[in-house]
């Protein structure tokens, strides 16, 4: 029996029962389709979260006031709101930590901001001139805060594109205009480039002002809320983290590291924590979809068993004219695999369409990976073998005498 | 040449009452020979063991005791796959209920045995057409689906299918059982012609005397034993 004979047999057998074959294939289509779509959604959101974190800047270590925190654990052990970090701490880190590429302290808060007849509530970040380099912020128009403006506590502001759109209009030029933050007038000197990213930390919906101005006029405190430190290279991040801790412990006169009044967060730790969450999420979605795939496979087995029973006499005849066990086995196995493979192909297309639809209508990032498509092909083929094996074995094991007598 | 030497077939089935197995003898010490080119009828009432004998002659089953030589080869103790090879190369079956594939054309049905004997594609159609012509099917019906044919036409397709591998033996199991007497006559005439003109060895199994009389020799079988042979 040649391959073309096998294809011919399979084709004519499947076409003979179009509705039944179609419904059985549908089970696999739904299974494979939902696996593809679910994994696409999972991987898409993983990508989104990673991009969001990466957009904060690369090789970042964040130093925050308050006690040490575990990853994902926001328990501050009673010191959460303490404000223990100062600009001098940031200065010391930038001078003493040899592995640091740049240091930017920030003091942020949310304030009501008004311009001519418009207003918005947004986050105002007081920072230094090192910030754009470390946090990967680019200037779209005008300039960022200079060191001179920090020393002189100038009332100047750099707007994020979202804030610009809210206070002025999308294509207007706000530079030189004035805005009022907490009723204090600021002059707009620049607009940053849009970074995209939503929800997690939208850097487009932000106003940057000199940190000293923020401390004196808005916050009324000489503390900072975060110090961002960028490492020179990724592999020295853990070492840099230790350096920073040592420097600050000495400065704060604390001998026991477990009693530190600040905490450091390594960006790679945040990325891995976030991706482990989304990985679990992807596995969860994928396994729910896999259940429907198994149900589809049972459908295949059910149909194949019915087919074998219906075609008992045909099997008997084939054996009488010289078909061997393996010929009959192969014929029915090919039928099952053809069904699941067809279902797999349609399922991949459907999964693709679903993930596109989810992206289009629900605005959730999706990502159909080559791996998941190859996986779907492999899985649909193996489901055919797995669930076709028993019916095929039953067909090939039939006694020709009894099969020919079967009514 | 076909030779049966002291063939017995014993079926074992568990008894409902005692739980022990009961042995039923379907064939008891059957011996006969069929020469090449003979047209033999095996005749007997139902339950006589003629079906069992046909299964053994057709290499669908093996005897419990004795030897069966087909074309010089001992077929008594072969495995399932070896038996399949024997059926493929040496035996052509014609059944009472035709057993054609309903969704396939007449031509496709006849090529089916060639699919399993690895015949080249180009040769298949040629061989199948020759077989169909010698079984007497009109060329106009070659590409009809087999379930659109009449009973007589279907049985001719089945005969062509039995012929296509050029077997040493054609085994016909009640070939006229599902046909009216007139079509039955035509089918039997086809067998006669194949025997006379092509020199085919044919064994016909039947319970009807009128059918058996078309053969050159009749082997009577009753209660698993051969009663007498008549010519």
In a few lines, what is going on in this structure?
The complex is a heterodimer of chains A (407) and B (231). Chain A has 407 residues and is α+β, with helices and mostly antiparallel strands.
Describe what you observe in this structure.
- The complex is a heterodimer of chains A (407) and B (231).
- Chain A folds into two domains: 3-52 and 273-405, no CATH class; 83-260, no CATH class.
- Chain A is of the alpha+beta class.
- Chain A has a six-stranded mixed β-barrel with strand order 2-3-8-5-7-6.
- Chain A is built from 13 helices and ten strands.
- Chain B is of the alpha/beta class.
- Chain B has helices spanning 50-57, 80-90, 106-116, 121-134, 151-163, 181-197, 209-212, and strands at residues 2-14, 21-34, 39-43, 65-70, 73-74, 91-94, 169-173, 202-206, 217-222, 225-230.
- In chain B, a hairpin with a 2-residue loop joins β4 (65-70) and β5.
- In chain B, α3 runs parallel beside α5 (151-163) and α4 (121-134) crosses α5 (151-163).
- Classes of the chains: A alpha+beta (407), B alpha/beta (231).
- Chains A and B meet through α1, α10 and α13 of A and α2 and α3 of B.
């Amino acid at each position: 029996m040649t391959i073309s004979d096998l294809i011919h047999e399979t084709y004519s057998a499947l076409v003979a029962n179009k509705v039944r074959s179609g419904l059985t294939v549908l089970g696999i289509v739904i299974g494979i389709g939902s696996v593809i779509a679910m994994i696409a959604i999972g991987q898409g959101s993983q990508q989104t979260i990673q991009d969001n974190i990466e957009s904060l800047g690369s090789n970042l270590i964040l130093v925050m006031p308050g006690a040490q925190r575990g990853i994902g654990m926001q328990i501050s052990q009673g010191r959460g709101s303490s404000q223990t970090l100062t600009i001098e701490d940031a200065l010391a880190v930038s001078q003493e930590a040899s592995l640091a590429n740049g240091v930017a302290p920030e003091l942020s808060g949310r304030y009501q901001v008004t311009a001519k007849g418009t207003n918005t509530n947004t986050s105002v970040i007081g920072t230094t001139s090192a910030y754009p380099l470390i946090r990967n912020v680019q200037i779209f128009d005008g300039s960022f805060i200079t060191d001179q403006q920090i020393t002189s506590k100038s009332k100047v502001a750099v707007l994020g594109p979202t804030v610009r759109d809210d206070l002025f209009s999308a294509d207007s030029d706000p530079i030189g205009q004035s805005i009022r933050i907490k009723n204090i007038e600021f002059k707009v000197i620049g607009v940053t480039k849009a970074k995209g990213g939503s929800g997690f930390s939208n850097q487009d919906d932000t106003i940057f002002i000199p940190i000293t101005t923020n401390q004196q006029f808005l916050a009324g405190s000489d503390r900072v809320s975060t110090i961002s430190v960028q490492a020179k290279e990724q592999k020295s991040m853990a070492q840099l983290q230790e350096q920073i801790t040592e420097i600050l412990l000495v400065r704060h006169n604390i001998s026991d590291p477990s009693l530190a009044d600040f905490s450091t967060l390594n960006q790679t730790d945040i990325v891995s924590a976030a991706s482990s969450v989304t990985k679990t999420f992807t596995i969860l979605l994928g396994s729910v979809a896999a259940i429907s795939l198994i149900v589809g496979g049972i459908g295949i087995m059910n149909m194949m068993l019915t087919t074998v029973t219906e075609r008992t006499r045909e099997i008997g005849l084939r054996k009488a004219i010289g078909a061997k066990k393996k010929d009959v086995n192969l014929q029915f196995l090919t039928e099952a695999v053809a069904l699941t493979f067809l279902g797999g192909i349609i399922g991949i297309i459907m999964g693709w369409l679903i993930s596109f639809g989810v992206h289009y209508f629900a605005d959730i990032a999706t990502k159909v990976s080559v791996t998941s498509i190859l996986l779907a092909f492999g899985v649909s083929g193996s489901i055919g073998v797995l669930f076709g094996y028993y019916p095929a074995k039953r067909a090939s094991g039939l006694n020709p005498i009894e099969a020919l007598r079967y009514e | 040449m076909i030779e049966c030497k002291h063939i017995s077939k014993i079926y074992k089935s568990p008894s409902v009452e005692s739980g022990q197995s009961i042995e039923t003898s379907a064939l008891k010490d059957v011996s006969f020979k069929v020469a090449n080119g003979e047209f033999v009828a095996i005749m007997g009432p139902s339950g006589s063991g003629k079906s069992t004998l046909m299964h053994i002659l057709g290499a669908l089953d093996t005897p419990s005791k004795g030897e069966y030589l087909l074309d010089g080869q001992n077929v008594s103790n072969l495995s399932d796959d070896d038996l399949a090879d024997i059926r493929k190369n040496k035996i052509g079956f014609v059944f009472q209920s035709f057993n054609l594939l309903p969704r396939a054309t007449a031509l496709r049905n006849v090529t089916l045995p060639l699919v399993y004997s690895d015949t080249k594609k180009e040769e298949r159609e040629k061989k199948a057409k020759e077989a169909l012509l010698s079984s007497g099917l009109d060329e106009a019906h070659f590409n009809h689906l087999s379930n659109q044919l009449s009973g007589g036409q279907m049985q001719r397709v089945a005969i062509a299918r039995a012929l296509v591998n050029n077997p040493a033996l054609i085994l016909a199991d009640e070939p006229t059982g599902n046909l009216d007497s007139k079509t039955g006559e035509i089918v039997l005439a086809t067998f006669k012609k194949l025997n006379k003109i092509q020199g085919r060895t044919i064994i016909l199994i039947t319970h009807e005397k009128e059918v058996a009389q078309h053969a050159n020799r009749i082997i009577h079988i009753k209660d698993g034993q051969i009663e007498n042979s008549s010519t």
